[in-house]
Amino acid sequence: MGPARIDAVLPESERRLWLRMRWPVSLTNARPASMTTMRSGASGPASARRGGAAVRIVFRSRLTRAGSARLGSAESQPQEACAVARRSALALRIFFRAAFLPPGMVWQNFVGRLSARSIASFLIAFASLSAARDARASAFELFGFGPEGVAEVSARTARAQDGSATFYNPGGLAFGKGYSVTLGGLGAISGLTVQGERQPIKDPAGGTLALDLDVPLEGPLRDRIRIGVGMFMLPDKMMRLRAQEATAPFFPYYDNRSQRMTVIPALSIKPIDRLGLGVGVNVLAGIAGPVDVREGQSRAMESRVEAESKTVASLVAGARFEASKRLRFGVTYRHKFGIPLKVTTTANVAGVPLMVNVSVAEALYDPSTLVAGGSFDLHDNVAVELDASWHRWSAWAGPLLNIDTQVSAVSLTSHPPTGLFKDSFGVRGAGAWRLANNSSREFKVHLGVGYETSMIRADVQQGRSNFVDGDKLLVGVGGSALWKKVVGKGLRVALGAQVQRVGAFSQNKIACTSVPCPPNTVVGPDTNAPDQGITNPGYPKLSASGMVYVISAGVGVDL
User: Fold this and answer.
1) Residues of the chain with pLDDT under 50
2) Who contacts 411 (Cβ-Cβ below 8 Å, separation ≥6)?
3) What is the C-alpha to C-alpha distance for residues 148 and 168, in angstroms, rounded to an integer?
């Protein structure tokens, strides 16, 4: 079965929704019959066929005027279609070889402008945080924020106090001083393989911005409040939503988690000299709206698209405590991320009503994460840190679309798999060694090593899905240099690199031997011999492993 796609492009000059779906379905309130095809001109087909159990629907806001709506084979007439509809005998030959719905989806190049309402929503969320919803950073979670963060494998919860603290620990912002801005780049190269084939990381590069500054207040609040902003920007788009095909083998840990713009403003306060408290919000937008397609006065198909982009935001909170001049502790909580996508499509073709609800509650997903760490200065030139983290992957419904379809008397419903993910745990250690420090320059070496467990449950037998993952070993190295009083108080240049080794994953697939087939089995096209002719790419054995290589560079100025 070929890949399924949803592409949505909504420029102001021409609002257009191009919806194409292809998915395995379950059938209720109907029984298999002979194959038929429903078409809406040359560019609006919907079809169902045996063996593929596929339904394909294409709607465009501007449909061709050539041809009238037809139901049945290519030679069928509208009158015949209406008769079939009136008899509630829409013919669909569907073979139940899929028990759930994972169509592929691509939603890319969506660029919109924040409305006044969206901006107001953002300000309210930043001020109160009580309306925080499921959103936070992805590229930072996967690879790290800034060259130092990449080199130290993100073990910076107790030490970060520049703009990167908006992600690592907003409470650390309170211990910074002055004003600083850092511009950088972040990129990743995939060495991951599944079934012997390389798995690339989509949109692997982007730019970063880290900004922190004092709030100039006098009296009791002097030097007590600081603000910062952390950003990740893709080169040519705001975000890219992508859901894999039903049986595609892939790493959900790396797939479609870094393909979005990230903005995290944060506020930090120091109520006492040794304690810093901080909060931030991560903001973006989801999309929802109806699509209506029906015959116009000229019998050509006419459509109406109405979509809304609503602001979503989530909480990033942290605290840092300075136990002594050399010892410090930090804790950070980042709420789970999930951009909502919902499109409801209604149509009336030759008198036959059609309704399709497509939704993804948690696209571009990152789990809720809790990180605790401690840092200790061995002496004036060497600092070390150890962090432990918990990631709540068990709450994820999975990267699959939910689709509910009603075609006349026929109901088609998706059945995504459940219980495939588990919570993961990680431990990370890092060190920074100052090699030189004098009145004109400073050089540091950054090192890091970490380990994180897999988020896939190896004890659960997968059926048609082919999710893979493994325990991860992380190693990072980098360097930074500061030239004092060259520009402002100093000019900083840093470079960091990281290697992520993903452990081997393997699982033997189980073939179905008799109908009805259990959901944890794979099946062929023949109901009389379901264990023959199996084309699932994970059969007979699903295996994966690989490496991910990350590099980051940045230039900053202290003012």
Assistant:
1) 1-137
2) 27, 28, 29, 30, 404, 405
3) 12
Q: Residue 140: what are its φ and ψ, rounded to 5°?
A: -65, -40
Torsion angles phi and psi, residue 281, rounded to 5: -130, 145
- Please report whether residue 1 resides in a domain: no
Range of 51's domain? Answer: 6-558
In 10 A of CB 544, how many CB atoms? Answer: 27
Measured on CA atoms in the order 129, 130, 132, 137, is the torsion positive or negative?
positive
Whether 256 is covered by a domain: the verdict is: yes
Evaluate whether 327 touches 375 at the Cβ level (below 8 Å). Answer: yes
User: CB of 548 within 8 A of CB of 191?
Assistant: yes
Q: In this structure, what CATH number is given to the domain that contains residue 303? A: 2.40.160.60
For residues 332 and 140, is the Cβ–Cβ distance under 8 A? no
Residue 403 CA neighbour count, 13 Å, CB half: 33
Contacts of 272 (CB under 8 A, 6+ apart): none
Say how many domains are in the chain. Answer: 1
Closest CA to 291 of 60, 501, 446, 9: 60
String of DSSP letters for 325-349: SSEEEEEEEE--EEEEEEEEEEEEE
pLDDT at 301 (0 to 100): 53
- C-alpha angle 17/22/23, rounded to 5°? 130
Task: Tell me whether residue 176 is exposed, middle or buried, using C-beta atoms within 10 angstroms of its C-beta: 0 to 12, 13 to 18, 19 or more.
Answer: buried
Instruction: Tell me what pLDDT residue 400 has.
Output: 73
> 51 exposed, middle or buried (CB, 10 Å; 0-12, 13-18, 19+)?
middle
* Residue-wise DSSP of 472-522: EEEEEEEEEEEEETSSTTEEEEEEEEEEEEEEEEEEE--B--SSSPPTTSB
Please check whether residue 532 lies inside any domain of the structure.
yes
Q: Indicate whether 36 belongs to any domain.
A: yes
Look at residues 141, 149, 161 and name the one whose alpha carbon lies nearest to residue 369: 141
Predicted confidence at residue 65, as pLDDT, reads 31
Asked if 134 and 125 touch (Cβ cutoff 8 Å), the reply is no
Q: Of 390, 371, 377, give the one whose Cα is nearest residue 323.
A: 377
- Tell if the pTM clears 0.85, that is, is over it: no
Is residue 81 a contact partner of residue 348, using CB atoms and an 8 Å limit? Answer: no
Q: In the prediction, which pLDDT does 282 show?
A: 82
| H-helix or E-strand spanning residue 552 | strand 541-558
Q: How far apart are CA 190 and CA 546, in angstroms?
A: 8
Backbone angles phi, psi at 124, to 5 degrees: -65, -45
